[in-house]
Amino acid sequence: MPKTEGTSFPARYGRVAADGRVVCEACPRLCTLKEGQRGLCFVRANEGGQLVLKTYGRSSGFCVDPIEKKPLAHFLPGSSVLSFGTAGCNLTCKFCQNWDISKSRENDTLQDEASPEAIAQAALRAGCRSVAYTYNDPVIFAEYAMDVADACRDLGIQSVAVTAGYMGAEARRDFYAKMDAANVDLKGFTEDFYRNVTGASLASVLETLRYIRHETKTWLELTTLLIPTLNDSEQEIRAMCRWIHAELGDTVPLHFSAFHPDYKLRDMPATPVSTVRRARKIALEEGLKHVYTGNVHDPEGDTTRCESCSAPVIERDWYEIVGYRLDEKGRCPACGQQQAGVFDGPPGSFGRRRFRVAVA
C-alpha cells in the first residue's frame, strides 16, 4: 500500500454498506459516508467508494516533552518523548483544551510533513525514548500512528498513545498490538456526561480499558479531568474508583487533573485545588495504590509511593524528578516490593523542559 504524504491514504476499518455508502469502523460512531463525504472527525472520508485518511504524513507540529506530561508516572520516568498530533477528533468534548487542533479543518493546522521513518529518526536524534500520539486522538489517524510505531520499534523507540479510548474492536486490536503505553482519558463515569458533554459512550471506553489491561502488554494509566458540577461529585468519583479497582486492578495509576475554562465551557469556573486533592483522597480510600494530581502544584500528589509499604519512591516537582529511590528494576529499597510500571535502568534527567523540533 503506497504511503504518500499529504494525499488521501487508503484507510483500514471500513466496509461498503448495501446502499453503496462506506461505513467507517475506526470508532463506535460508525459514520456512514456518501461519495465525497467526511466523517465527524473530518479526516476519514469516502473517495471513489473507498475509505481514505486525509491526514497521513502530516502533523500539527512536533515537540519534545517530559514523559510525565502525557501524563505517565510509571513509564520510563524522567525520559523525554517526541509528541505529535494531526487534526480532527472523533469526540465533541465541550471542554476540549486542544480544540484548536482537534476541531481544526485539516489544512488550518497541518503544516509539518513527515514520513514514519523521519519521525523515528527525529526521536532518535533528540534522545527520546518514546514517541507519543497525542494532542488530538490517534484513533482517527491510527494507520499513520501504527506505521510510525513500526518505524520506531525498528530503532528501539517505544510508542505511547494519549487517547479517549473510543475505538472500534478491529482497530483497537491492531493499534494496541503496537503501543507500549497508553494514557486513556476516562472523562467521567456516567453515560449522561459522555453523551451530553463528549458526544461519545462510556460503555465503549470501559470496553477499551478492559481490553488494554487484560488482552495486551500495553502499560496503562488513566486521567480524569475534573469539571466543577459536571463530573466531580463524590458519588461519581467513588463509583469510578471502585470500577477501576474491580475491573483493572489496584495498581493502575489514576491522574486527576484540574479543568480550566476553555472552548465551549468558558463560563465554567476553574477546578479548585481542594477538589483535585479530595478526589485523590477518595481514590486512595477506595484502595487504589497510585493516584496523582495534575494541572496544580501539589508535591504530594506528584509523589509515587510504594504500593506495599507507602514509602516515597519517586518525588516530583511538576514534571521534574527530585528524588528517586527505586532500583533499576523498579523495586522499593525499603521493602523490596516491585512497583507496577515500566522501569528500565536509572531514571532520565530530562526535567520539565519542552521544545519544538523540525522533523522533515
Question: Can you put this structure into words, describing what you see?
Answer:
- There is one protein chain.
- The protein has 360 residues and is of the alpha/beta class.
- The chain folds into two domains: 9-53, no CATH class; 58-357, Aldolase class I (TIM Barrel, Alpha-Beta Barrel), CATH 3.20.20.
- 24% of the residues lie in helices and 22% in strands.
- The protein has nine helices and 20 strands.
- The radius of gyration is 20 Å and the shape is globular.
- The two termini are 22 Å apart.
- The relative contact order is 0.13.
Uncertain runs: 1-6
N-to-C CA distance? 22 Å
Give the SSE order as H and E letters.
EEEEEEEEEHEHEHEHEHHEHEHEHEEEE
Structural class: alpha/beta
Radius of gyration: 20 Å
Query: CATH topology of the largest domain, what is it called?
Result: TIM Barrel
CATH architecture label of the largest domain? Alpha-Beta Barrel
Q: Please state the overall shape, judged from the principal axes of the Cα atoms.
A: globular
CATH class of the largest domain: Alpha Beta
Key attributes of the depicted protein:
single chain, 360 residues, alpha/beta, TIM Barrel, 2 domains, 9-stranded mixed sheet, 9 helices, 20 strands, globular, disordered N terminus
